[in-house]
Amino acid sequence: MEQLLDGFATALTPTHLLFAAIGVLLGTAIGVLPGIGPAMAVALLLPVTYGMEPTGAFIMFAGIYYGGMFGGSTTSILLNTPGESAAVVTAFEGNPMARKGRGSQALAAAAIGHFTGGIIGTILIVLLAPFVAKHAIDIGAPDLFAIMVLAFIAVTSVLGASRIRGVASLLIGLTLGLVGLDEMTGQQRLTFGSLHLADGIDVVVVAVALFAVGEALWVAAHLRRKPFEPIPVGRPWLSRGDLKRTWKPWLRGPVIGFPFGAIPAGGAEIPTFLSYVTEKRLSKHKDEFGKGAIEGVAGPESTASASAAGTLVTMLTLGLPTTATAAVMLAAFQTYGIQPGPLLFQRESGLVWALIASLFIGLTLLLVLNLPLAPLWAKLLRIPRPYLYAGILFFASVGAYAVNADVFDLMLMFVIGLLGFGMRRYGLPVLPAIIGVILGPAAEQQMRRSLQLSDGSLIGLVNSPMAIIVYVVVLVIVFFPLIKRLLPKPTPPAAPAVEREKVDA
Amino acid sequence: MSVKVWVAVATALLAVLLVPPLLTPGADSGEGSQVRALRVLVPNSPGGGYDITARTAAKAMEDADLLRNAEVFNLPGAGGTVGLGRTVGERGNGKLIMSMGLGVVGAVYTNKSPNSLLDTTPIAKLIEEPDIVVVAKDSPYTSMQQLVDAWKANPGTVTVGGGSAPGGPDHLAPMLIAKAVGLQPKSVNYIPFDGGGELLASVLGGKVAFGVSGVGEYRDQIQAGTLRVLAVTSKDRIQGIDAPTLKQAGVDVEFTNWRGIVAPPGITQTDRDKLVDLFARLQKTPQWAEALQRNGWTDAFAPGDQFRTFLENENKRVATVLKDLGLA
C-alpha cells in the first residue's frame, strides 16, 4: 500500500501527468481508426520514447493502451466499424442504439463501463498479482477448450429467429476462420496458393466488411426507395432507467474479463462475447437485444477494459505477453534493459508501482475527456446518409489497408462485404458469422493442443479439475429445459424461452 | 457549435494522424560517408524478433552518425515470405533492405513461397541467439541424458513445446536433436505456441515435458530458479547460464537462431558494397556493442559473400529436416 502511494507520488508529477494525458489522447485517436490497434500504436510510438526515461515512457504506453481499447468502441458504436477486435462485440448493440438516436447514451455507457472495468481490473492487479502469477500457468489447453465449448453452447442464443439461417451464418464464419496455414502442422488450408491468405483473415477485416461494407451496400441498394430520415439525436445523458440497467453489467464485466486477460491465449475477444451472452441471459429486456440494449454495450466494454488490466498482471509478473499489445510492451521494457518476470517487483519496484498508479490516473483522465465528448461524437450521425455511408466506407477501407499496408486486404474486405450484402438480402444474421471467426480457430487450436499433449487420448480433454467443472456447467445448461419439465411447476408453465431477435434491421 | 465545424475538426485531426504514416520520405542520393533515406522492411509484426533487430540496428546507426533518415516499416505475413516477395520484387532498389532470419528460411518451404532467400542479395549476418532446452524446476528430468532416454522410450508422451510454427527455429531445433539421437522427426510430438512467452506458461505449468526456445524471454525465470536449463544449443556455453552445450551433453547438434540483412536482387555493385560497409561499420560502434549486451544477442557478423555461403548451407539443412516431415 505504501508502495502504491509512492507510485502515485511519482505518477502525479506534472511531467508524468502530461505523459499520461498525451498517451490517453493518442491512444483514443488511434483506437478510433480501424486497423491500427493499440499494439501497432505502441510499436509506432516506441522510437519517440527512446529519449525519455523509462517511467515516463511506460506511463505514456499505459495511457495509449487503455485509450486505444476505448477508442475502438467509439467507431463500433457510431459507424458499426470496430477499431480493433476487442470492440467487435460492442457494435452488436451499440450501433442499433446509435441508430435509434441513443448514440450518446451508448458512448457514455461504454466510457463508464470502460472506466469501471479498468479501475476494478487495476485494483485486482494490486490485490491479486502474486496469486494470479501463481495460478495463470495452471490453466492449460483442456481448460481453455472447455470454455470454448461453453461459448459454443452460448452461441445458440445469438442465432436469431431462424435457427437454420443462424447455423448457416455460423458455418460461413467457421469456414472463414479455417483460412490460412494450419498452425499445428504447417499445412495450407483454403489459401488457394496465395501468400496473402497464409496468415488467415483478420477478425477486424471480417467484422468491418460484414458490418460496415455489407450494410453500406444494403443501404445503397435501398436508399432510393425510402424517404430520407435523419437519425434523431436524443437526450445527451444517461437516464435513471439507463443507470439502473447498466450498473450491474459494469460490475460483472471485470469478473469475466480480468481472468481472461491474465491467462495465456486469453485475450479480449472471447470474454467480451461471453459477457454479451451473459448480459442477454440476465437482462429483463431480452426483447431489446439486437435492437439496441444498453446492457449489451456496458457489459462487454467493462469486460474488455478489465481484460486489458489482466494482461498487465501476467506480463509484469511472469514476463508473459498474453496479447499482441503486451508483446510490444514487453519488447519496450527490454529495450530499456528491464526484464519483466518474477523478479521485476523487487528489482524495479518504483517503476512498477508508478506504472500501476498511472493506470488509475489514465483511466480517470479517459473518463473525464470522453464523457463530455459523447454527445458531440453522437452528432456525427446527423450527417445525411449518403455522406455518412461514404464516410463509413472510407474509414473501413483505410482500416483494412492499414492492417498490413496491403491492397489485397482491401479487395478481401470488399469481397466479404459483398458476402455480407448477400447475407442481408437472404435474411442471414451477421452476428453468428463473426462469432464463428472468433471462436472457431481458437477452439480448434486448444482442442488439438490438448489432444497432442495427451498423445491422442481423449482423456486429455477432461483431465483437469477446471475443465470438468466447466463441462458440468455445460451439461446443466444443455439439460436445463428437460430438468425444468420434470420439476413440479410452481408458476404457470413457462413457455420455452424463445429468443426473438433480429440482428440487423 | 454546428455539425459542420465538428466534421471539419474531425477531418483535420484524422488527416494529421493518417497522412504522415502513409507518406514516405523522398529518396535522395547519399553523399559522403553517411547513408541517407534507407528503408528497412521488417517482414513480421511490430515487437517481433526481426522488428527489434531492425529498429535497434537503425537506432544504433543513427546514433553513430552512419545513417540519416532510416525508415523502418512492417510488412508482415506468411512467416516473412510476403515481405520477401516484396524485396525480391524491388529488383535493383539500392535503398531498401530487409531484416530477416532463420525463420524466413523455413517459412519459404512451409508457405510454398515462389521466392527464395537465395534470390536476394545477402548483405550481412548480424547476430545469433542460441536456443535452450528447458524444463520446469519440478520436472523429473535433471539432465539431457535422462530426457533423451525417456524421449526415445516414448516419443509420443514426451511432448516438446516451441515458440514457433512448423518450419521456425524452435521447431527445427528439437527435430535436429531428435535426428541426432536416432528418433524419426515424424514421431516427435511437437506443440507449437504463439511465441516464447506463451510457451513459457506451458513449461512453467508442466504442460509440456520440455520446451525449446530462444534464451531471451527466459533469463529472469532461470535466474529466479523456476526453470531448469538442460542444455544450450550453441557451440559455446552461454555466460550466466549453468548448462552444458548439446555436444557436451552427448547430442551431436549445433544450432543457433540467427538474424541478418538482405537487399533486393540486381542492385549495383556500388550499392551493395555501400550497404555491406554500412553494417561492417555498425558492428564496430559502441552503440551496437551495448545493444547486443542489452538484448542478450551474440555478435555473429558475416559480410556479403560469407553470408551467402552460410545462407545456402542453412537452406539445405532446413530443407532436409522439413522433407523428413513432409513439409518441403
From TrEMBL, chain A:
Pfam families: TctA
Transmembrane segments annotated in the record for this chain: 20-46, 58-79, 106-132, 144-161, 167-185, 197-220, 318-338, 350-369, 389-419, 426-443, 463-483
Keyword terms, alphabetized: Membrane, Transmembrane, Transmembrane helix
Residue span(s) of domain DUF112: 17-435
Protein name: Tripartite tricarboxylate transporter permease
Superkingdom to which the source organism belongs: Bacteria
